[in-house]
Known about the structure:
Chain A is mostly helical.
Amino acid sequence: MNWHRAWAVTRTDLQQLAKSRDYWLPMGLLAGLFFVVVPVVALNVIASAQGSDAIEQIGTVLQSLPISIQNNIQGDSPEVRAAFAIAVYLLAPIAIIVPLTIAAAVGSNTIVGERERGTGEFLAHSPITERELYAGKLLAALIPGYASTLVGFGVYSVLVNLIVGPKLGGWFFPTAGWWVLILWVVPPFIAIALSLIVRISARVQSAAAAQQAASLVSLPVIVVSYAVASGLIYDPLRSGLATGALAWLTAYILVITGAKSLRRETLLGIGIGAGKRVAVPRIQEGIAGPAKG
Amino acid sequence: MAKGMSEPAIKFQGVFRAFGDVMAVRDLDLEIRTGSVAVLLGPNGAGKTTTIRLSTGALAADSGQISVLGLDPRVDAGKIRQLSGVVPPKPAFYERLSGRANLQFAAKLWELESDRAIEESAQRFGISGSLDSDVGGYSTGMRTRLALARAVLHDPAVLFLDEPTAGLDPESARAVLALITELAGKGRTVVMCTHLLHEAEGIADQVVMMSEGHAWVAGPPDHLVNEYWDDRRVHLDAENREALAVVKEFEGVVASETNGFVTVELDDLNKLPALVQRLVTQGVRLTRVEPVQPTLEQLYFEMQRHHRGEEATS
């Protein structure tokens, strides 16, 4: 495995991405919506609302949580307690949804994009191995996905502290659960989704088909990770580390098998969606072929 | 290079490759000498591109043996690709990146350390001035020049050119042919696929006629001429052209035609020395005695005619 070559693939893909306004503009808007607009609106409304039905309902929900969790919710008034709960618990899954969506959009186009552009032919004749290519493509999708997590997480932390922090007597975010989520759980979940999406990208006939299939793959991963993220925030140390470890193991297995499954011929558009190849009788050794028999 | 110069650079023995129920390469035998320019001729679908793909290991053969630079693509495809350069029929690039970024990417894949090769290669093909522009704005000619620059960046031992001049302006086409001549002069092996016969004219050390995935004729052009070209016409010219008029009365001359110089057709080309001697003794000061040589195109169709005749009788 030559990491220089793999990184060359990653770098080239990222350079193209940086120049693709039609990609990063909608993705930036998506991240902005989830990390900025929704939290700002929700937290401002909750923190400033006094005695409304919504606050009462959130208060009821909070009272149904285990005592240990209820004890972690900070704030003197129902409004502040509700704002704290939303900031820390209810919006946690966005940390998964946004990067997965961004990574899936990049990942689905990786291999099939090379084929559609015709650069697959160049890669097929180049010294890069299938594993290096797979690794490079995986990183090229993982980096923007995870970078969006880190940037979004940073922005979200600042906003939450600015809106809710003053009512709690200072900055309180990120909590331990969020650190575990961002640093330990999110990366393997992105890798799991991408390992599957890059495989799909190598096997479908068009970028459009890859995107459709990527949605199908990323949706269950989002659902699972949503549940994991929610539970993890409630109980970060007990379930977080174990869940993360399991996710890393799964990601490792999927990435290794994914790298092995990539065939060079797919870069040339051969053997894609055409069913099994009907080969001539295979001769084990020597020169003879069927016509010479 | 893995083996000595006596080894053929590329050798196919009984190679088969099918796509579905289409046989792309069928019992292909091929031998291309190291340091030669081989031209694979044939119509679309003849198996030329598949032959290139099999050579670099981009495709695996279903059966048969392939050796490139003494290496087996099933085992050492990476080494073969490290030593090869390929110009595909429609060179593709990362359109949103500059020519330089595209070449830098290739340089990284071939593990070239410095940018010097990029500068030299770009200069060689006259694209230095536009190297920092996005490839999306390149003309067809510039794209081909960039593809050539990319293919020779690492100074490959074998260069495969697949229809390299298709759709090119004359200047760019000339650059391609000049590259081939230059590389051959440096002892590199060049394999060019084309169906444009005039391109192969004068540069081919070896011609391989392919059809339906099979190489049915191969050899140096002069050998093929001897084998397949049965033209007994000779061009004659002299300082005193009017004296050539007597030639039509000579024994063995079947026909003659005057078009400034004289073209005579003999019933047997072996009678040419005697004819020349007789002309000289009659005071004709000859300046040209040249048996008619076919163009590659004429040779191609003649060989094709032979091939079909053989197929019909077998």
